Amino acid sequence: MFDLFAIFTKGGILLWHYQQHAAVSVVRVVNELISQVILLERFHLATFSLGQLLLKFKLDNNFELIFVIAYQKIAKLMEIDRLIENLFSEFRNLFAERLKTKAYFDAISFDTIFKPILKAYEIENSNSISSNRTMKTFTESKKFSKLSETQKEKTISALEHKESNSNETIDETLNLIDSNSYPEDTSHIQTSFPRAIQGDRVGGARRGRGRSKNHVESKKIVPKKHIKVGRTWDGQISQVEKESLNYNKEDGPPDQTIDVASYVDPVTAVGGMRGDLSGIDTMKESDTKPTPKVSRFMSMLGGLTGSKPVGKDRLIPVLEAVKEHLITKNVAAEIAENLCASVGEQVEGRTLSTFTTVRSVVQQSLRDSLSQILMPRRNINVLREIITKRKTVAKPYVITFCGVNGVGKSTSLAKVCFWLLENDFRVLIAACDTFRSGAIEQLLTHTKCLQSLYPGKEGSQRVTLYSNKTNKDASSVATEGILIGIRDGYDVIMVDTAGRMQDNQPLMQALGKLIHRNTPDLVLFVGEALVGNEGVDQLQKFNQSLIDYSFAYGDSVKSSLIDGILLTKFDTIDDKVGAAISMTYATGHPIIFVGTGQMYTDLKSFSPESVMNALLK
């Protein structure tokens, strides 16, 4: 039934374990749980999947212990939480003195107590499975328990109203059947109905004939004289049409002048973004006064003092307030709930000293969880990586921008390009958006603007745009651009891709082909800071699609994943920075750049500390 039982400390010291099958490695189970759950602050998870096993665990915050049970996914087990609680209580009561002194390396004999409890559970579980279970109502379901208190009240009232209306309808139907109130003679219905229709038709026809003459006379249209044009029978383009499409003539339309001031201040901006980007600052002077909701949240925390273990009944209202506060900050509802559950798992059962309040503990636990979430798994320093690659392999650093439609990929690409030009790099932009009309022209406008700000030497531009309008294969265009960049000695290749929805399989397959074929050094997902749940869905499906289609092309998972996030429109959200938490929590990808406006200089680096302050204020 069960494959493994284990008790270990948060530091990884194994105190006791019971193994029923030798095929299940206790070391592997403990290490995976520590690396994938404990270190990532994912204590809210009810279970953790490890191959064919499911891991169920419980924390003891007083003694810093973790109890884990491993069993097969196909096993039907009931009331596992109660079993864990019973075993954990027995273990703590029996070895409380050792745990207080942290005598972890003394021999522990727990088998004599463990086996009778396990035997009783197995009998009870088999009886529970064999007995019939009634279907739960919606108010008893897990989905209902995840709702907020306000949503629960509305749902209950709606269900009661629906039930009362249903009962009234049934009563009215029964009364109607009992009254036998059927018409005795229904012949008049059959005779009068066609007459009424016939009368309406006659009157309508007469009225129609009466006004049709005036109606036609009042709307007489004088036909224009038709000029016959010779038809081209072979379907070939005519000479006149060729001339109208030729823009290479000397008397053709002149190039439009680029308004550089609409993108950047050419006087003060040039030379002001050398080195690393400055971080975002979401805290303002007007933000020092807490809002009413935050004040209520803080007062609820302040009312809970130490002096005794923190129980679940004392934490529920506090965590509910934290959840609502996070949702108002644009954190996705599911992620806000998971985050609160993780904080609750860390605080529950902890005995505080007399001068320690639950408020300070919850605040610190929430801040630690957010810090762990926002901590990047891969430390990406773009400037350093460009210089390192140029010195080691003498090839350009390739950055690919991807995302859904309308989030500002091309504008963000131009901002990053401006920053790289500020740091004395030569940049080639590969226009691989072969789908959207005007995509190449938009990049051409940005390129001309940047060329006017950073004019290169004769025959050697600082920034160049490469495009191929005759080639509709984006991966081939990117390959051509990279080869030209290598030939001409560019430092950075920036690949602009077409916007695509995350459910569009052909376009996602084309993106997977582009990444597999060209192996960029950095793949950036461009998303909006305005969205919550939708942004998480976009990022997750983009990442999963890249993995799936890269497997189809024979690529590995590591080289297929999105490397980082560029959040746009960050200046429009004030302190509602929840999208940053949602995207990072759901995928683990770091936020590298943040767009704060339309100008080239409106590009910042991501600051986890600033986001946490805005989220917790």
Automatic annotation (TrEMBL):
* Keyword Cell membrane carried by entry: no
Output the Gene Ontology cellular-component terms. Answer: signal recognition particle receptor complex
Has keyword NADP? Answer: no
Q: How does it sit in the membrane?
A: Peripheral membrane protein
Q: Which InterPro entries match?
A: AAA+_ATPase (IPR003593), Longin-like_dom_sf (IPR011012), P-loop_NTPase (IPR027417), Sig_recog_particle_rcpt_asu_N (IPR007222), Signal_recog_particl_SRP54_hlx (IPR013822), SRP/SRP_N (IPR036225), SRP54_GTPase_dom (IPR000897), SRP54_N_sf (IPR042101)
Annotated Gene3D superfamilies = 3.30.450.60, P-loop containing nucleotide triphosphate hydrolases, Signal recognition particle SRP54, nucleotide-binding domain
Q: Where found?
A: Endoplasmic reticulum membrane
GO molecular-function annotation terms? GTP binding; GTPase activity; signal recognition particle binding
Q: What Pfam families has UniProt attached to this entry?
A: SRP-alpha_N (PF04086), SRP54 (PF00448), SRP54_N (PF02881)
The residues covered by the SRP54-type proteins GTP-binding domain are 590-603
Q: What are the recorded Gene Ontology BP terms?
A: intracellular protein transport; SRP-dependent cotranslational protein targeting to membrane
Q: Principal localization?
A: endoplasmic reticulum
Q: Which UniProt keywords apply?
A: Endoplasmic reticulum, GTP-binding, Membrane, Nucleotide-binding, Receptor
The record ties this protein, via PANTHER family, to: SIGNAL RECOGNITION PARTICLE RECEPTOR SUBUNIT ALPHA
Q: State the family it belongs to.
A: Belongs to the GTP-binding SRP family.
Indicate what this protein is called per its UniProt record: Signal recognition particle receptor subunit alpha-like protein isoform X2
